Amino acid sequence: MAESDGQERTEDATPRRREQAREKGQVPRSRELASVAVLILGAVSLMWFGQSLGEALMALMTRLFTLSRAEVFDTSELMLVVVGELLHLILPLGLVLLLLFFSGLAGSAGLGGISFSWEAARPKLSKMSPIAGVKRMFGTQGLVELLKSILKVLLVGGVASYLVYINLQDFFELTIETFPQNLYHAMDILLNFVLLVCCSLLIVVAIDVPFQIWQHNEQLKMTKQEVKDEYKETEGRPEVKGRIRMLQREMAQRRMMAEVPQADVVVTNPEHYSVALRYNSDMDSAPVVVAKGSDFTALKIREIAAEHDVAIVPAPPLARALYFSTELEQQIPDGLFTAVAQVLAYVFQLKQYKKGRGRRPTRPEDAYLPIPPDLRHD
């Protein structure tokens, strides 16, 4: 197995490695697939359009061998005759060539798709090295090509011999048929022979295509170190990723802290948790969590709330339930609606009291705040 820097290439190629290889023109190709596709569709095209092509050629030859004296000595008249006859030949010949073109294109692109690379087209001195050429001749690829050539000779020879054997009676009939029936019969036999012999080469294609895919995958295999290096290049080094995550957390925290002044109340477990809630009846169908945090973040939320005169209500069971069951910018769970409603009612009454309206409200006791068992976090 190939080695690189003392390491074996045991890892399958990554998507990026495959993309880079494709950009360099390194894609699996099967010459057998392309050549067999051209041979088979070429035989089919002759079977389809061969009669029209033969008739056009015969008409062309007949016309050119029956030129009048005036046509032979008049260049312009001769050109008109030649061009006219060639126009009759263009359609059948063009159909055959067009089918051959598309069969060659489909056969070449059938494995690996359509790919063009300037780097692959650029001449390389390494490919002109006699030593490298000898290594290719006696390497794995050379052995495979030799085996394919032997198999093709055996297939073509075997199928052709079998076809001759089973069609001996038709060959004998050719000797007693009259012209041009014998010629047409011979052409039918020949085209059938060509098509069947070409189809026999599909066995070679069935062997070559999987081999080319396997060989391409083997050539693209990577060492463990190459996989690690590529991951570092594409995903970033661990320390850089850690720094990015830290900056993202800081930015998210700053955005969260900027929302605290817009809150209506901050529910706290005085020692560990703080959750800031907003409820605007014009835009919110239920109270929304705008900020939450634990320990130092919880303390910072309370400081900002105090600076902006946002009510702070100690309610440890409710604060823990809100902290563990909610996400930022999302509504509170249905099970906490009643408890949060009591806290908000207290806060709104407290605001009215501070404006000199009504009497001072009583803060709801923790025991009277209904919290479902599945949302409790003691």
Structure description:
With 378 residues, this protein is α+β, with helices and mostly antiparallel strands. Helix content is 64%, strand content 7%. It is built from 15 helices and 6 strands. The protein has helices spanning 15-23, 31-64, 69-73, 75-109, 118-121, 130-137, 140-166, 168-174, 181-200, 202-220, 224-235, 238-259, 296-307, 316-325, 337-354; strands at 3-4, 7-8, 265-269, 273-278, 288-294, 311-314. A 4-stranded mixed beta sheet has the order 5-4-3-6, with helices on both faces. Strands 1-2 form a two-stranded antiparallel ribbon. α2 (31-64) packs antiparallel against α9, α7 runs antiparallel to α9 and α8 (168-174) runs antiparallel to α9. The longest helix is centred in the N-terminal third of the chain and has 35 residues, at 75-109. The radius of gyration is 42 Å and the shape is elongated. The model has no long low-confidence stretch (mean pLDDT 82). It comes from Salinivibrio costicola (Vibrio costicola). This is Flagellar biosynthetic protein FlhB. Its main location: membrane. Keywords: Bacterial flagellum biogenesis, Bacterial flagellum protein export, Cell membrane, Cell projection, Cilium, Flagellum, Membrane, Protein transport, Transmembrane, Transmembrane helix, Transport. InterPro entries: FlhB, T3SS_substrate_exporter, T3SS_substrate_exporter_C.
